[in-house]
Amino acid sequence: MGLFSITVPMVYQRYFLKWNYLYVFLFAQSLYVIAESINIILTLGYNKNIGIPNFVLYVIGGSFAFVFEHGFTMFVSLIIVSKLTPPGIESTMYSLAVTIIVMN
User: Fold this and answer.
1) How many domains does the chain contain in total?
2) What CA–CA distance (Å, rounded) separates 42 from 18?
């Protein structure tokens, strides 16, 4: 999980830096829908008909997709909060934003 937390900002800077925040957020939510679809396939057992092991779908739908979706959602939210924060209270606003975002 920690490796993916480092990977999200690197992927953002490499591929999404010039994107509008709305589109990055929509990308993150689309990733969430895809991950949940993979989890539904895993739960219903459709993967066994086509020969995909449970472990592969579990890793893709659970670990990879969840971390990237959560990371992009949080990253975009933190960027927006940082642009709205007045000078001098950055650390307080960061703590508040992370608490609100993580608790959801």
Assistant:
1) 1
2) 35
